[in-house]
UniProtKB/TrEMBL annotation:
The lineage of its organism: Bacteria, Bacillati, Bacillota, Bacilli, Bacillales. It comes from the Bacteria. InterPro entries: DUF2268. Residues 86-294 form the DUF2268 domain. It comes from Paenibacillus oceani. This is DUF2268 domain-containing protein. It holds the Pfam family DUF2268.
Length: 308
């Protein structure tokens, strides 16, 4: 297994020193080109000739610092992600996550992996709702973390990367289609966060789960999501998964859901599944969502108890 890191701190320094008119293409070449296959799979244009057209720069800048923001004014942010110890911790998290699957009998079809950590855009409302850190790992072989670096987010990046590694493994075995259901998203996010806490403990449980109270989960989220598991189409799925505020930011119709409702529900559903079946998180990660949902039908009507 070949796991490589892309040291974004070195790229940020280079872009910060570049002329204004050179920043965008330098960033595209250095930071985004190594992930070209990911963008192609997601059908995101690498570069468009149309003025202000949608491409990887526009997509990447939704949550991350855009090229024009990368100047000496953010030198403190760059410094905070520049230590060898930070990158070593991140690399160890990715290596441990992937190797644990092979050690538990899961033979991974993908052998080459690339990961990096980018500086998050503090003006992104969606990112700040998740307390300034996030990730992207749904395309096998490519793992990205995002953070606004501070004392809270930096130690949590290893858990975020583990979360994304779990997605990376799952979608080497589960076929992604445009007919994907809300149930698959709920299961997938629950598996990913369960894996992260399996590795690093519940003290690093992401805000996408930790912010949800037991009352909100049992009285509001579970009854609503129970009836929507077979819903398809991103415009229908995203409001239930991310909640109304993020849905509005994405121009989707709100459905009365709190922040990251589907994530929180998914985490406790998978915890229920693991206890009920005795299966490991490694087995569960490559199990189709419909099989998992079939075995936890009781979850929807039982009171979930949140420990701690």
């Amino acid at each position: 297994m070949n796991i490589q890191s892309l040291r974004s701190d070195q790229i940020y320094r280079k872009v910060a020193q570049a002329l204004s008119e050179e920043k965008t293409e330098l960033f595209r070449t250095e930071m985004l080109a190594p992930f070209l296959k990911k963008w192609q799979i997601q059908q995101i244009p690498f570069k468009t000739e149309a003025p202000y057209g949608f491409d990887v720069i526009v997509m990447n800048s939704i949550m991350n610092r855009s090229p024009e923001q990368i100047t000496d004014q953010i030198s403190d942010e760059i410094r905070l992600i520049s230590s060898d110890s930070f990158w070593s911790e991140c690399e160890d998290a990715v290596k441990k996550s992937l190797h644990l699957f092979t050690e538990h009998g899961v033979s991974l079809p993908v052998s080459d992996y690339l990961f990096t950590v980018q500086l998050g855009n503090p003006e992104s409302r969606a990112l700040m709702l998740s307390e300034g850190y996030s990730g992207d790992g749904g395309i096998p072989g490519y793992i990205l973390g995002t953070l606004v670096p501070n004392a809270y987010t930096l130690p949590r990046m290893k858990a975020a990367l583990a979360h994304e590694c779990n997605h990376n493994v799952r979608y080497q075995f589960i076929q992604w289609t445009t007919a994907v259901t809300l149930g698959e998203f709920i299961v997938s996010e629950g598996l990913a966060e369960s894996f992260a806490t399996f590795l690093f403990g519940e003290e690093l449980l992401g805000p996408w789960v930790a912010k949800t109270s037991v009352e909100t989960l049992n009285r509001h989220i579970k009854p609503a999501l129970k009836e929507q598991l077979q819903v398809t189409g991103f415009d229908k799925i995203m409001p239930y998964l991310y909640g109304d505020e993020i849905a509005k930011l994405q121009n989707f119709e709100p459905v009365g859901m709190p922040y990251s409702a589907g994530y929180a529900c998914g985490y406790y559903l998978i915890q229920h599944y693991l206890r009920k079946t005795g299966r490991t998180i490694f087995e569960a990660t490559i199990t189709p969502a419909n099989q998992i949902l079939e075995e936890v039908k009781g979850f929807w009507d039982e009171e979930t108890i949140i420990s701690g």
